[in-house]
Amino acid sequence: MEIITFEKSHFPQVQKIYGEGLATGVATFETQIPSYKAWDKSHMNIGRIAAIDGEQMLGWASLSAVSDRCVYGGVAEVSVYVAKSARGNGIGKKLLNALIDISEANNIWTLQAGIFKENESSRILHEKCGFRVIGYREKIGKLHGVWKDNLLLERRSKKVGI
Prior knowledge:
This protein is an alpha+beta fold. It is 28% helix and 35% strand. It has a single domain (2-156), classed as Gcn5-related N-acetyltransferase (GNAT) (Aminopeptidase). It is built from four helices and seven strands.
């Protein structure tokens, strides 16, 4: 397995894994798999990485800007999705640690994550990678008519922005 920067040509595999995340009901408020154009517009150009085994994508991770205001230029939100068939094998941890390295190499000092309260495995993964819970948003939005709570996590770099 290797971690690569993924290209537009990999996006059908990204979409497939994203769809598997949607199916869990605890990964995102989104209900539709985005087109490449929509996804590309909402994600940073750096940190588009995937775990690949041969031709098979096992998971992917990316960064999104939290704001277009320059003061938040060193703050990004993380996304990590692992293929259903590859869950529980440490792929998410490898992707998130690689994303942390990429973010620090690109002068990002704070990473954020919003995780559904019931997505315990994602919270644990982020905490193992140095994130901490900083807040809780009760009933912040509905998914399929059901109110969802959201934990806010962040990781402050010990190398950048200190």
